[in-house]
Design brief:
This protein has a single domain, classed as Alpha-Beta Plaits (2-Layer Sandwich). By secondary structure, it is α+β, with helices and mostly antiparallel strands. It is built from 2 helices and 4 strands. The longest helix has 12 residues.
């Protein structure tokens, strides 16, 4: 019998995002990166959040696992905290 790896839950998807301030200016600082991490960790459907660092074009690079059915609520949560996803 061959042991196979557990299948990935199709409702949960790994995501790489560039995230920026919506109205304010992004400042490359530890405090701002921590604040972004806090917002992402409390966002609906977000799990395994990592703030990777400053993006060369501004904002921050982040990875997370997102429950796809929560995408709209996730984006609304970012907007409510003055952040936006840049695609």
């Amino acid at each position: 019998m061959i042991d196979s790896a557990p299948s990935q839950d199709p409702a949960r998807r790994p995501v790489y995002q560039r995230v920026m301030r919506r109205h304010g200016a992004c400042v490359d600082s530890d405090a701002e990166a921590q604040a972004l991490g806090d917002v992402l960790r409390t966002a609906p459907g977000a799990d395994e959040v990592k703030v990777l660092g400053w993006h060369p074009r501004g904002g921050y690079r982040v990875t997370l696992v997102l429950v796809w059915s929560e995408l709209d609520a996730f984006m609304a949560h970012l907007e409510a905290h003055d952040w936006m996803s840049v695609i």
